[in-house]
Amino acid sequence: MADAPVNDAPFRLLSGVEFGEGVIVYSFTNLYGCRIGDRSRIGTFVEIQRGAVIGRDCKIQSHTFVCDGVTIGDEVFVGHGVMFINDRRPRATNEDGSLQTDADWTLLPTVVERRVSIGSGAVVMGGVRIGEGALIGAGAVVTRDVAPGETVAGVPARLLAPRR
Amino acid sequence: MADAPVNDAPFRLLSGVEFGEGVIVYSFTNLYGCRIGDRSRIGTFVEIQRGAVIGRDCKIQSHTFVCDGVTIGDEVFVGHGVMFINDRRPRATNEDGSLQTDADWTLLPTVVERRVSIGSGAVVMGGVRIGEGALIGAGAVVTRDVAPGETVAGVPARLLAPRR
Amino acid sequence: MADAPVNDAPFRLLSGVEFGEGVIVYSFTNLYGCRIGDRSRIGTFVEIQRGAVIGRDCKIQSHTFVCDGVTIGDEVFVGHGVMFINDRRPRATNEDGSLQTDADWTLLPTVVERRVSIGSGAVVMGGVRIGEGALIGAGAVVTRDVAPGETVAGVPARLLAPRR
């Protein structure tokens, strides 16, 4: 593992990240407590939270948010402005009005398998599995599992093409 | 009222903001001329414009844009990448080609009531009222009022579940 | 042409940009190798890539991504969180697992004609032409050409109103 990205760039916040070899991280990024595999590239305006794992040879494009509980396999393309979600019914506060903490909700883990491609502007709900080589259309809202090789699109995302 | 957030964080632009007590503002944020209630937390890559009001105990998540004319109640959750809108037909220029100024369009005020939850990637058109405790699905485009307690989703957003 | 924006603002990355006269560029921006016409204004958290062209008197709002191959005409309004796309099937790697480079995919050029208005949260696929004065609804996913003056909305975007 490496201690840092191989490139230099201003305006980055990198805290407690496990970097693979040859990782590139662009400017205006906030990465903490996550793991980034060899040769992956992280675009501008990206936040990757503690607990997220990015595989090798991935591209995570600009304006994307990867939350805790998301595991992304090798050779995955995540487009621009993609939002991952890890809870079913997010709330700011509990019924008694107290601020929610990590103890007050259940993390829904999401798995994105090898060679998946997620189009720009897509939203991926918590708890889904996106199978190997699947294609998620731009702007799709993925609410359930996507089988390997399938192409889905729309809100909510529906099957456009079966396994190629 | 406090003069500043309680936390420190690099890369913030905070100008003329009225902060409540215990507010947390993360990095890469641009807040100006707005009001943020006690204990609310503002995520990375967030812009909140002059004239916007955020209540107490809110979470405004990363990559979200809150424009002038938006009033957010207490205990509201605004997900990641949520875009508020405050004009009906935005244009860069007037019919005569001159640049539009504040005098050239009508602000449509938006009200988000107490304990609403807005899913990631949602877009909220100007002029709507989202009633207390309503849930807006991830990726929804809210084009009209949402009654208290309702759940809506889709593009445009439609009723998924009546008042709980 | 000017060497720089007329305004000053912290946290900007401007590299090899051809600026027109009177351009304003806000903070937290990453512009490189692109061309920005006279008096246009570029919002926060915006990235504009090498090869993109922005006309005169445009507004490019916050959180928007403009990629290589996009040509935007004069007096165009691009809302907040708009994502442009320039390839049909983005992949992180080639079939042999090697990282994709510019030689491994075909750029699909996009043209946005004069006085178009693109709503917040819209996604514009590569290879489309949006005709003069057209309106793209907020949250729309534009998958094919839009004729001049048309209004489209939805996922995928469909005609709401013919030429006005």
Percent helix of chain A, as a range, is: under 10%
Strand order of the largest sheet of chain A: 3-6-9-12-15-18-20-21
What is the helix tally of chain A? 0
Beta-strand content estimate of chain A? 25-35%
Which structural class matches the secondary elements of chain A? mainly beta
Quote the distance from N terminus to C terminus of chain A: 35 Å
Low-confidence stretches of chain A: none
What is the CA-atom radius of gyration of chain A, in angstroms? 16 Å
As an assembly, this protein is homotrimer
Largest two-chain interface: A-B, 25 and 33 residues
Q: Write down the secondary-structure element order of chain A.
A: EEEEEEEEEEEEEEEEEEEEE
What's this, in brief?
Chain A is 0% helix and 32% strand. The first copy, chain A, is mainly beta and 164 residues long.
Walk me through this protein's architecture.
The structure is a homotrimer of 164-residue chains. Chain A is built from no helices and 21 strands. Chain A is an all-beta fold and 164 residues long. An 8-stranded mixed β-sheet of chain A has the order 3-6-9-12-15-18-20-21, with no helix packed on it. In chain A, strands 2-5-8-11-14-17 form a 6-stranded parallel β-sheet, with no helix packed on it. The first copy, chain A, starts with 11 loop residues before the first strand and ends with a strand. Chains A and B meet through loops of A and loops of B.
Please write out the topology.
Three copies of one chain form a homotrimer.
Chain A lengths: L11 E4 L2 E2 L4 E2 L3 E4 L2 E2 L4 E2 L3 E3 L4 E2 L4 E2 L4 E2 L3 E3 L4 E2 L4 E2 L25 E3 L4 E2 L4 E2 L4 E2 L4 E2 L4 E2 L8 E3 L4 E4 L3
Parallel strand pairs in A: 1-4, 2-5, 3-6, 4-7, 5-8, 6-9, 7-10, 8-11, 9-12, 11-14, 12-15, 13-16, 14-17, 15-18, 16-19, 18-20
Antiparallel strand pairs in A: 20-21
